[in-house]
Structures are given as C-alpha cells and as structure tokens.
C-alpha cells in the first residue's frame, strides 16, 4: 500500500527531493559552519547540535508519516454499483437519514459526508483538506496530524537555524575585530564561503519559516472551525449564489449548503482531539498513531447505511 501513498506526480517528487535536500543542507551548514567554529570549545556546541538534530529527526519522521500514511481513501466496492435507482430516488435517500452521502462519478462509488475527490490521487478522500505536493499526498482525515506536526517542526527548525546563524555571525564579526590583522589574508577565501552559506541558510529559513507558519495557522483555524478549505469555498459560493438569487428561493438554497455543520458546536479541544488523538497532549507532538475519529470511524463499508 505504500506505493499507493507516494504518487508519481512530477511536482510532488520534485518537492520531496527539495524538502530532503533543504533539511540536510541546513543540518550541514549549522554543524560545520555555525556550531563548530563558534562553539567548538564550549558545551553549547553539543547542546545546540543535539537539539537541532532532534528537531530535524522529528521533522523527517512526521514528514515520512504524512507521505506514506493513508489520508483516508474511500474504499472502492468489490463489484460495480448501479446508481440509477439512487439518482431517481434522491429525496427518499435523505428521508432515510443518510443525507451527506454522495456518488462520485469518477470513482463510481459512494462517498461518505465531507469526502471529496482528488484529481492527483484519483480517489475520494475523507475530510480532504488539500493535496500537498510537499508530501506528495493528500491531507485528509487520517494524516492531517502528521502534516501539522511537519509544519510545526519545520517552523521550529527554521527559527532555530535563524537564531544560530545570526548569533554565530555576530560572534564572528566580534572575533575578527579582536584578532590580529596578520591572519586576515589567510582567512579570506574561507570567510567568503562561510558568508555565502550563512546567506543561503538565512534565506531558506525565512522563506520556509514564513511559508509553513501561514499554513500551520490555516490548518489550526480549519480544525477549530470544523470546516476544511474545500467546504469554506463551497459555502462561500453557495452564499454568493443565494445573495444573487431571488428571495423566494433563499430558504431552499440555504438548506442545500454543502456543509452546515451542527457538529461545529463541539468544544475546540474536542475538535483538536479528533485530529491529534485522545491521549496525552504531549503525544500531540509525536508522530504516533492517533485514536480513530469519533465520526464515521476508520473502518466502514463502501455502501451507505440504506437499501439501494
């Protein structure tokens, strides 16, 4: 199943390679050009090196789980399903209490509420947030925790490397002012190389740090409001169409909103636990398997709970 999780999307493969290259390059620069020259004779070299590499290990672990974990793929039925009766009796389907189940014309199967079809993965994903090329996978109900952890540790690594580079640069400037001018000519070639690595790492840290923090904030808002970006977009389009439509059809249009979640009244902590698990909050920082979601569960039939 791992081959199904890692798609052969050219953009996704390039983003994966760029991600790992950026991580290993940052580790190389921090160790060889930041910590060893500035803190070689201090215990801070070991402490900073251990802490930074621990963050990178957690970053890579969360990224790997997000890449290879099942985002919540809707299973396909073993045999073909005839949807003609369902389409002709859609009103009776809602009366039976299965409102929210829809039919995917591409997968040719039923999909549960809040599931959407991904054009890249070519499958329907439960509570799909978006398809992320940086993990070459969809962000859905079952791997959103790992994706958010990946964003969190990427932001921490970016901030940490930024602080280390700035502090090392300040230390180097002070040291050069106090050193003898005799060694200045000998250190010129290596000094240019070090400055180049500093600038590249600073740009990388700022770009990736700002980028992931914006997405991290968006993910938390999506969880707390219990509304994915796809649902937000659909609701906004529905509201816009309702405002331009005649007032007589406003009530019927409101009832057709794709996601008017009565379950959004849940406490924010309960919504967070549905994504990160119901264990200790400390486990939210580790790439551990969360407890199954309370709504719908992880295992379910490919058919909704009604007779076709």
Automatic annotation (TrEMBL):
In terms of superkingdom, the source organism counts as: Eukaryota
What is the UniProt domain comment for this protein?
The DHHC domain is required for palmitoyltransferase activity.
> Composition bias, kind Low complexity: at what positions?
244-255
Q: Which GO terms describe its molecular function?
A: protein-cysteine S-palmitoyltransferase activity
Q: Palmitoyltransferase DHHC domain location, by residue?
A: 102-235
Q: What is its EC number?
A: 2.3.1.225
**Protein keywords:** Acyltransferase, Membrane, Transferase, Transmembrane, Transmembrane helix
Give the family this protein belongs to, as stated in its UniProt record: Belongs to the DHHC palmitoyltransferase family.
What is its subcellular localisation? Membrane
Positions in coiled-coil regions: none
Which parts of this chain are annotated as the region Disordered? 241-265
Which stretches are transmembrane? 12-35, 41-61, 150-173, 193-217
Q: Which PROSITE patterns match?
A: DHHC (PS50216)
Known Pfam families for this protein? DHHC
Query: What catalytic activity is recorded?
Result: L-cysteinyl-[protein] + hexadecanoyl-CoA = S-hexadecanoyl-L-cysteinyl-[protein] + CoA
- Protein source organism: Takifugu bimaculatus
Membrane topology of the entry: Multi-pass membrane protein
Cellular component, GO annotation: membrane
Protein name, entry field: Palmitoyltransferase
